[in-house]
Amino acid sequence: MASTSSSSFLLSTSITGSKFSAGTPLAPPSSVSFRQQRSFSVSAAYSTAERTTTSSNIASQSSLYEVLGLQAGATTHEIKSAYRRLARILHPDVARFQQNSSAEDFIRVQSAYATLSDPEKRAKYDRTLFGNIFGRSVGVSSAGTRSHYTTCRNWETDQCW
Amino acid sequence: MAEQAYTVASDSETTGEEKTSPAFPEIAIGIDIGTSQCSVAVWNGSQVELLRNTRNRKLMRSYVTFKDEVPAGGVSDELAHEHDMLSGAAIFNMKRLIGRVDTDPVVHASKNLPFLVQTLDIGVRPFIAALVNNMWRSTTPEEVLAIFLVELRAMAEVKLRRPVRNVVLTIPVSFSRFQLTRIERACAMAGLHVLRLMPEPTAVALLYAQQQQQSAQENMGSGSEKIALIFNMGAGYCDVAITATAGGVSQIKALAGSTVGGEDLLQNLMRHLLPNMKDLFSHHGIEEIKKMGMLRVATQDAIHKLSSEMAVPVDVDLGNGTKISKFLERAEFEEVNKEVFQKCETLIKRCLCDAKLEAEDVHDVIIVGGCSYIPKVRNIVMSICKREELYSGMNPLEAAVRGAALEGAVASGISDPFGSLDLLTIQATPLSIGIQADGSNFVPIIHQNTTTPVRKEQNFTTVHDNQAEALIFVYEGDEKTVEDNHLLGYFKITGIPPVPKGVPEINVCMDIDASNVLRVFAGVIIPGAKCPPPFMEVRMPTVDDGHAWSAQTLHKTYGSTLDLVTVKKKGQH
């Protein structure tokens, strides 16, 4: 369980994510404590020594929405809720009570949230995302999807190249 | 018995893995070391409780008196403070002095305290000493703090009837990482293990998060996001934080801090009452120290009274014909301290701006700290935040230590059946961290107000042809040039291939983990190389005292030979 790959972890969160995204208020029942949710064992396959390879792991998730377990059209409220829910599971302060936890997962969620919670950055990101996966259904990742990091170009570079 | 009810939740879900945390974890206590006062709190199983000393006081004066052989702190003996202050044997304000070199303006401003603070302006630690039996007994802020912490620890151990080792301490936002290491060292000297150093307003934010969560549960509310602005001004420091709270998660949006506080108000007013103060007190003889102490006590008293009265009489006889007899008005006090209040305004505005929020977006405005009783301070905060009322659910003098105790319980892995500890603080960096490049410019890699844990990297390149080595100077701060920021350390990377300048790709990566430990990785990237030179991984800060010196000496010795320049961002990923 502890060695579950990061992709299967994200699969499970996207299931809960879609359950929550139907306008459900974010506050979980008070009886659910953080540490009871620690069965969410997450991968620590990439240690600091392998840090140069982490970008490819991040890139294996085809969109920032999937990192948060959301559909591409999610509302600001849904994005905030999803971020907070994941923070309560993945933040190292919570996750360190389980073994094999890693800050990487939280950092990935954090960086997705940083982009999607900023209207300007999100709009820019959405343009690149929809541009790249044109003709493909949104929010469904296929294993062979190219990383958006390598395919992402903004308007200026498109003009230059 | 009480402890058994609050152990970590059952391990049954995890599949047979051994847990590292013990079955009965020790609950870390929260300590708020103030410039002037200090308090200790702990999660008692159902709520946060402040510990009282033998005199039944929750707030204790932060000072240490050096007498004969054994120094004594203000934990047990608070009444002696004013007497000791007049004799030059009491050292206080250590939170203002800790981790500062003798070129620091804050150290210079401390020279008219009633003990010895001597500076030589060469970038080493100042000479601080107490007068014991007519002789200067040298000490350091770390030592004073450690003596004080030993007393606090002893008091807590008696009250809790158990050994105390783990602590969560609150610190000012503006503390550099070098200053944090000094606090950790003082704790280590006192036999305490620092679980977390928490910026004061973020501790208040955690308490607020808990209060919001509880009221959301009582009202069966949805627990929607609430934004709070926290303004904390004590004797030594002023901090502002903006937090977004929902469901027990406190996310720090922005932090701002500065070294202004009640001590500045006090000194400005002392200077106003006695304009030739500096000349009168320059010798630090027994008589001068006594006069300084008397003036200090009288001025402090006047400031306290001016919080409730519009004018107070100040009568103090300093001897030798120096006598102050004056009717001091509140408006006069405010005028004398105009600059301090302006600084407070700037901090709040900057924090709102950094959080990308308008005053109208803030739901609650919280004001804490000893200066929160000053009418002018309250007015400033209310007028910038455009409201008539301040949040009233907290004791301004206890909020920070209560938050620290909550963090202590959460970080010790304690859970509460009623969900009172289902809390999480998502911290942000108070200051930017970066390296020296492009001459003496500061190039931030992790920017201010970045959520932690975080990892960021940036590429640099050489400035000279065939440059084989490069020096990585790590700084912290928000000024453009490195001289104006805090040096955290430096190290050399080697093995850069002999190629023209601008060709080698030197990667500098910075990582802050959840415990706020900063690590810097740096090395040269050689594509296709079979065994590339290894990356250096260095835990920061590395510098010890006299660091202002070492940077100058390095610059003198090496010039620009080991310099770096930034690479234009292109194809970072």
Automatic annotation (TrEMBL), chain A:
<protein>
    <submittedName>
        <fullName>Chaperone protein dnaJ 11, chloroplastic-like</fullName>
    </submittedName>
</protein>
<dbReference type="InterPro" id="IPR052276">
    <property type="entry name" value="Diphthamide-biosynth_chaperone"/>
</dbReference>
<dbReference type="GO" id="GO:0009507">
    <property type="term" value="C:chloroplast"/>
</dbReference>
<dbReference type="Pfam" id="PF00226">
    <property type="entry name" value="DnaJ"/>
</dbReference>
<dbReference type="InterPro" id="IPR036869">
    <property type="entry name" value="J_dom_sf"/>
</dbReference>
<dbReference type="InterPro" id="IPR018253">
    <property type="entry name" value="DnaJ_domain_CS"/>
</dbReference>
<dbReference type="InterPro" id="IPR001623">
    <property type="entry name" value="DnaJ_domain"/>
</dbReference>
<feature type="domain" description="J">
    <location>
        <begin position="63"/>
        <end position="129"/>
    </location>
</feature>
TrEMBL record, chain B:
<comment type="function">
    <text>Probably plays a role in facilitating the assembly of multimeric protein complexes inside the ER.</text>
</comment>
<keyword id="KW-0547">Nucleotide-binding</keyword>
<dbReference type="Pfam" id="PF00012">
    <property type="entry name" value="HSP70"/>
</dbReference>
<dbReference type="InterPro" id="IPR029047">
    <property type="entry name" value="HSP70_peptide-bd_sf"/>
</dbReference>
<dbReference type="GO" id="GO:0140662">
    <property type="term" value="F:ATP-dependent protein folding chaperone"/>
</dbReference>
<keyword id="KW-0067">ATP-binding</keyword>
<comment type="similarity">
    <text>Belongs to the heat shock protein 70 family.</text>
</comment>
<dbReference type="GO" id="GO:0005524">
    <property type="term" value="F:ATP binding"/>
</dbReference>
<dbReference type="InterPro" id="IPR013126">
    <property type="entry name" value="Hsp_70_fam"/>
</dbReference>
<dbReference type="InterPro" id="IPR043129">
    <property type="entry name" value="ATPase_NBD"/>
</dbReference>
<keyword id="KW-0325">Glycoprotein</keyword>
<feature type="region of interest" description="Disordered">
    <location>
        <begin position="1"/>
        <end position="20"/>
    </location>
</feature>
<keyword id="KW-0346">Stress response</keyword>
<protein>
    <submittedName>
        <fullName>Heat shock 70 kDa protein 8</fullName>
    </submittedName>
</protein>
